[in-house]
Amino acid sequence: MDLGIAGRTALVCSSTGGLGRAIAEQLAAEGARTVVCGRREAQAKEIAAGLPSAVGVGVDLLAEDGPTKLFEATVEAFSAPDILVINGPGPAPGPAAGVDVAAVDAAFDALVRQHIRLLAYVLPVMRARHWGRVVAVGSSGVAAPLPNLALSNLGRAALAGYLKTLAAEVAADGVTVNMVLPGRIETDRTAAVDAANAKRTGRTLAEVREASAATIPMRRYGRPAEFAAAAAFLCGASASYVTGTLLRCDGGLVQSL
């Protein structure tokens, strides 16, 4: 399917690895002018060099001036974004009982606050153009909170609520806002969570992964490219009437409707 985004500018946050990188590669393959970014500047530039039309930007989005620098770098390289993919690393695993308040603040900053600050730059341009796509990388924990991931459950659910509200406000301007919920996809983040579970439960990593895969109807972890394809669809012209949605890409993991 031609997504109709050739020549569009796509800014993909935290795209030097994992799901962000897979999405950036997919959008670039569709002809979008893509900004690859992350704290690892050399990695961002290396990835961008291998894509058809892309630049790599080194920026810490959690820094106070991070959103400003990222937006300005995107405009300088191409233009204000037509497509914004919201993405970022998740907080450390841990239980809800006794959670540290400072850690809650940090999780909210990482998963909500800085993305809202970036949206403040991007949305006015999208609305003026009467075309825009905002796609957030969430977590299956938004639909069904995950054990021992209290901070991630908190922050990502808050972002989902904000984006649902925003979607209704900007829909008439031709801007869509959606979130894609990954289940267990083969990324460094999933590997870290599995390792934490192994340590917490006293099982081997292989045992944790085998038990985890057994809970997925497809009986396997997903591939980053599979997730990226779902996210890219929501970035395309053909998804113009899809907004305010949570799209699961989880192999059937979440059992609720």
List keywords for this structure.
2 domains; 257 residues; 8 helices; 7-stranded parallel beta sheet
Largest sheet: 7 strands, parallel
Question: Reading side by side through the largest sheet, how are the strands ordered?
Answer: 3-2-1-4-5-6-7
Mean of the pLDDT scores? 95
Number of domains: 2
Order of helical and strand elements: EHEHEHEHEHEHHHE
- CATH class label of the largest domain: Alpha Beta
Shape: globular
Descriptive report:
With about 260 residues, the chain is of the alpha/beta class. It has two domains: about 10-185 and about 225-250, 3-Layer(aba) Sandwich (Rossmann fold); about 185-220. It has eight helices and seven strands; from the N terminus they run βαβαβαβαβαβαααβ. It has a seven-stranded parallel β-sheet with strand order 3-2-1-4-5-6-7, sandwiched between helices. Strand 4, helix 4 and strand 5 (about 130-135) form a beta-alpha-beta unit. The longest helix has 29 residues, at about 100-130. The radius of gyration is 18 Å and the shape is globular. About 45% of the residues are buried.
